[in-house]
Amino acid sequence: MGSVDPVTGIVVEDGHELEGKCLSGKVLVFPQGKGSTVGSYVMYQLKKNNVAPAAIINRSAEPIVVVGAIISDIPMVDSTDLNPIEIIKNGDIVRVDGTKGVVTIL
Amino acid sequence: MYLTREEEAILEGEQGPTLQKAMEILSALGDIYGADGLVPIKSAQIAGVSYKTIGDAGFEWISDLKGTVVVPSMLNPAGMDLTRWQEMGIDEEFASKQIQIIEAYRRLGVRCGCTCTPYHIDKTLAKFGDHLAWSESSAVSYANSVIGARTNREGGPSALSAALIGKTPNYGYHLDENRVPTVTVKIDSKLEGADYGALGHLVGSMVGSGVPLFKLASRPANTELKALGAAMAASGAVALYHVQDVTPEAGLYQETTDTIIIERAQIDEVFGKGCQDEPDLVALGCPHYSADELEQVAKLLEGKNLDREVWICTSRNIRDANPDLVNKIESTGAKVIVDTCMVVSPATDRFGCVLTDSGKALNYIPGLCGVGSRLATINDCLRGGDNN
To answer: Hey, are the CB atoms on B61 and A41 less than 8 Å from each other?
Structure first.
């Protein structure tokens, strides 16, 4: 809530390391969600506006992002054996299987 | 998390896409929280109502759902008084969207109590031992602590899903082992009224999501417990507390090993903080006032002719059931506002400094409204601003 513009998919949170970047069609990797449950609805709007991330990878699942991913049909994987934050780099191409819970760096 | 055959079938879509989504949400949350299964609930309280907080995104999702809730379900406060929004300075575009959101919920069978105090308007919604899916932090605290019912702080989508399925994941405060106090809080001075909100404001940030057991020198009324719980849930994440010799489960527990001592001076400090300017709005009723509290306001305002903006927030049910009290209050120039509150309504945004008797509002107003706040006793809040 308040961190991403639901119309453009651009991160607007002041000082955020992804500030100014567009999430549309990207695989978004971050440790954990936070904030108000309204955040789930923002994810839904991103999807409806066709600017949602293609998939989400979290270090650990937290309800707001999980519920957001469910209502928006965005594949999501968490608690992988290896730490995605350390291993995946900006620009890597990854395959995310939300059903099996597997992430592959191509 | 274990699902029964019937629950599995819902998850597979045999009862349609809306219930399938609801079950997906409950099932995923159950897994995250380590629930052993779903537990049937008595009632639901649904967050995500104010257009200010859920926006077009939330509205769209709720509108797309098709079904009916299977347990009594009430809404949290909306962003405005649903009939007197113009007087609050709300613009037509916001009002139109807000009314549509309420309609979308109504189509699902959810009642617009539009209050954070459903327990004041319908006592059958929660009794001792009942499992609930409530989502407003102060109501969750009251239900768990003062009533002795059992609920976690559900999110908007999860409470709605629970209302549609009639069950919620069995974890957290539904379980005995999580209701045990984790810290004792001791105060030697007698407290009254807004002191309890100040206490909650202090203790919330000290205990985080712990379960405090209070040893007090005074005996709080339910409305004072309401203020205490609300403030703790705002500055911290307290969803359950016990007060020795007062709340229904307190007698089950001994003192904990950790103790926090609170001095009167610390309580007084909370009254001193915040905006120091002359307040341009006095806002009471966070959580929503009961009929008794309205009566107290009417007495304090007697004979006054106010020259500044005073809002008294309560639920529509309470206002409609107490027309004489409301008339008495409004004849002084104060406004009795329903369906919303000073925290979630954009109407607050145009002010500079809000005086309140609520420890919860003290905490939220600056962040959510971009406006200053200051705590005062109800007497000090309603003193002054008098043209007479």
So the answer is: yes
Beta bridge partners of B243: B214
Give the whole-angstrom CA distance, residue B341 versus residue B202: 23
- Longest pairwise C-alpha distance within chain B: 70
Residue A3 domain-assigned (yes or no)? no
Nearest to A67 among B47, B53, B158 (CB): B158
- Share above pLDDT 70 across residues of chain B, in percent, rounded to a whole number: 99
Residue A89 falls inside a structural domain: yes
Q: Tell which residue, B76, B209, B200, has the closest CA to residue B135.
A: B76
B322-349 confidence digits (pLDDT tens): 999 999 999 999 999 999 988 888 888 8
CB atoms within 10 A of CB B12: 10
The Cα–Cα gap between B312 and B297 comes to 8
Q: Which of B21, B29, B58 has its CB closest to that of A41?
A: B58
A2 vs A39, residue with greater confidence = A39
Taking the CA atoms of residue B216, residue B220, residue B224 and residue B229 in that order, the dihedral angle to the nearest 10 degrees is 50
Choose among B62, B59, B61, B70: nearest CA to B107: B62
CATH architecture under which domain B274-382 falls? 2-Layer Sandwich (3.30)
CA A15 to CA B218: how far, in whole Å? 47
Write the CA distances from B372 to B25, B92, B281, B337, B361, integer angstroms: 38, 26, 10, 20, 10
CATH 3.30.499.10 domain residues, chain B: 274-382
Q: Is residue A79 part of a domain?
A: yes
Q: Name residues 15-44 of chain B within 8 A of A (Cβ).
A: 21, 24-25, 28-29, 32
User: 3-class SS at A25?
Assistant: coil
Report the CATH number that the domain containing residue A97 is assigned in CATH: 3.50.30.10
Higher model confidence: residue B223 or residue B90? Answer: B223
A74: containing domain? 27-105
Domain total for chain A? Answer: 1
Catalytic residue among A3, A24, A36, A60: A36
Residue B249 is predicted with a pLDDT of 97
Beta partners for residue B103, in sequence order: none
CA B190 to mean position of chain CA atoms: 25
* pLDDT of A2 above 70: no
Domain with residues B5-176, CATH architecture:
2-Layer Sandwich (3.30)
